[in-house]
Amino acid sequence: MAEHRITCPFCMEKGNFETEFHAEKKKPSSDKKLNFDTLRCGNCAGYVMVLWSASEFAGIRGLHDYHSLPWALKLSNYPEYLPDVVGRHWLQAQRSIQGENWDAAALMARSALQAVLRDHQAQGRSLK
Ligand SMILES: [Zn+2]
User: Fold this and answer.
1) With contact defined as beta carbons under 8 Å apart, do 63 and 36 qualify?
2) Based on the domain organization, do 64 and 48 belong to the same domain?
3) 12 C-alpha vs ligand 1 centroid, how far in Å?
4) CA of 115 relative to ligand 1 center, distance in Å
5) How far is the CA of 17 from the centre of ligand 1 (A)?
6) Final residue of a domain: which of 69, 100, 119?
7) 39-77 tens-digit pLDDT
8) How far is the CA of 7 from the centre of ligand 1 (A)?
C-alpha cells in the first residue's frame, strides 16, 4: 500500500507508519481485493484506519485508491485526481471555508470551476 501518500491526522507527518493490523476481503466473482489496515504513526503513535484496493482501471497496476479515518484536521493537499490548477484553487477554497472566509471561498471555488471548464475547452464571453 502507498503509505507514503497518507498524512497522520494528529501530527500531520506524512508516510511514517507501521501496519498494526491487516485484513482482506475478496469477492469470489472478481480479482479485486479490499484491504483493511490499522496504521500506527511512527511520530505520535496515533492510529489511522485505511481502506484500500489496487486500481483496476486504465491498466495501471500498483496504483492504489484509499480512504482513511479520521480525516486530517488541516488540509495539506488536494485530491490527486484533480489537475494542479484546479487543485490549487480547490485547496484554497476549502481552507477559506474552514476559516469562515466566505467571499474568498466563493472566489476560489469559482476559479476552480473556471479551470475545470477551460480544461474541457469551454469557450464564450462569460468565461474569461
Ligand atoms: Zn502522527
Assistant:
1) no
2) yes
3) 6
4) 34
5) 8
6) 69
7) 999 999 999 999 988 765 545 455 567 888 887 777 778
8) 8
Domain count, the chain: 2
Q: Cell numbers 501518500 correspond to what residue?
A: 5
Q: How far apart are CA 72 and CA 95, in angstroms?
A: 13
Express each pLDDT in 4-49 by its tens digit. Answer: 888 898 998 889 999 999 999 988 887 788 899 999 999 999 999 9
Using a 10 angstrom Cβ sphere, with 0-12 exposed, 13-18 middle and 19 or more buried, the burial of residue 65 is middle
Indicate if 60 and 86 belong to the same structural domain.
no
Cα–ligand 1 centroid distance for 16 (angstroms): 8
Q: 77 CA to middle of ligand 1, Å?
A: 17
State the distance from the centre of ligand 1 to the C-alpha of 90, rounded, in angstroms.
Answer: 25
**99 CA to centre of ligand 1 in angstroms:** 23
- Which residue(s) pair with 22 in the sheet? 37
Domain that holds residue 84: 75-128
∠ at Cα 51 (81, 5), nearest 5°?
A: 50
